[in-house]
């Protein structure tokens, strides 16, 4: 039987492809979670999504609805993009944590940790730049940047790897 319902066909096709994007996103997420119970819960959700995809495909087959190449590609990109994006935005926030620790220690007159905190902050910046480089030219980025306030133009810190301040004069970093 052929379905005379354009919207329904489109919905089936996009749901089928979106399940894969979700599964990929959860795969990336599970890998980043340390807690074992939490990790297996997320892995179970991933399994659920793969099962949904199978079920949706069964229904599509019944009515001779083909898999949409367009949706497969589009959702593949989204599923791939999201873990990079959120990793980058997380790293972006971590940068200033270390510089602020340094500021606070210095307020207490403690300078012993300056070097290590500086190095850790700079390393987080490198991580941020790495993740950003993977998605910089992705068409999804401007949209995500608008909503989550991080991306090619916006960062959660003012650290610039191209003009590194030596540790002694690095207090310009992350000062409000
Ligand atoms: Fe699902
Ligand atoms: Fe990091």
Secondary-structure element order, N to C: HHHHH
Which structural class is indicated by helix and strand composition? mainly alpha
Please count the beta strands (DSSP E, at least 2 residues each).
Answer: 0
What percentage of the residues does DSSP assign to strands (E)?
Answer: under 5%
| Shape, principal axes of CA atoms | elongated
Low-confidence stretches: none
What is the helix tally? 5
Helix content: 55-70%
Mean pLDDT, to the nearest integer, reads 91
Ligand set? fe (ii) ion
What would you say this structure looks like, in words?
The protein has 176 residues and is mostly helical. It contains 5 helices and no strands. The chain has helices spanning 6-32, 36-62, 69-107, 114-135, 141-148. The longest helix has 39 residues, at 69-107. The chain starts with 5 loop residues before the first helix and ends in a 28-residue tail after the last helix. Bound molecules: fe (ii) ion (2 copies). Residues 91, 94, 124, 127 line the site of one fe (ii) ion.
